[in-house]
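for the writeup, i need someone to sanity check this before i put it in the appendix. the sequnce is what the collaborator sent (i think, or maybe the updated version? ugh). structure was predicted straight from it, no edits. if anything looks off just tell me and ill rerun, i have time this weekend
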Amino acid sequence: MWGARMKTILVPTENGSAMISALDTALLLAQKFDSCIEGFPLRPAVADLVAMDPDSGLTMVAVKENDAEMVRQAEMLFRAFMENHRVPPHGADGEASLSCSWLPDAPSGHDFVGSYGRVFDMIVLARPGDEWQSPSMITLESALFESGRPVLIAPPTSPRSLGTNILIAWNSSTEQARTTADAMPLLRRAERITILTVEGATVAGPSGEQMAHSLKLNGMAAETLTIKPGKRSAGEVLLAKADELGCDLIVKGAYTQSRLRQMIFGGTTRYVLANAKLPVLMAH
């Protein structure tokens, strides 16, 4: 069944310190499901490079050389990581096993991930932090809003485990329902599942207990928790509880409120994206 396992993982790759955690996170996922990890070079559109500094006198030739260098460095980083971790190249027979592949001719621009990601079971990205107009945020939003697939966001430091102790951030929303469904392959293998609801941070819909009942009928036991936030935000409550329980994955729907509202007033998605120290599985 589609989605019953996670066999295809896409990792947009750029040369940077955050990339190692993203690759480590992808590898943890791939080892669980004998998946193929595919990388491609992620970099700004060539036109964006020119637009960034129109007065620099950069010629188009120099810009294209810079772009080619970004591609080369991304590929070197990806291939070196896979060799160091003994992940073999994907075989011509097409058999699903722990393997890797590289897409050499991906177009530049951060929106490619949203279209190409549609044929993958999971997209893995580094955590973008709190800069809303940053390229990494544009990449994440392209993945979330355009691919129709779940996105696994790696923390700044490489995780040691993934999906053994899972926190579901239940707020009764459509986005959360979809994300929980996308996480099913991981939930089925988890040793512990906690469904957390933060009072006052939900929309009209089924309770955490009703979600737990549904999981139980699917053969998964889950504890339910409801917390009064007090003076803390829902995002603070969520990350504090995940830390206290020793969770190694949060499953959270992205942007139940509009993105504009979240940008102006803050929001749970925004807080988690800026502060999570463990992997977060998100979908919209």
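The longest helix spans residues 60-84. The chain has two domains: 8-154, 165-283.
thx in advance!!
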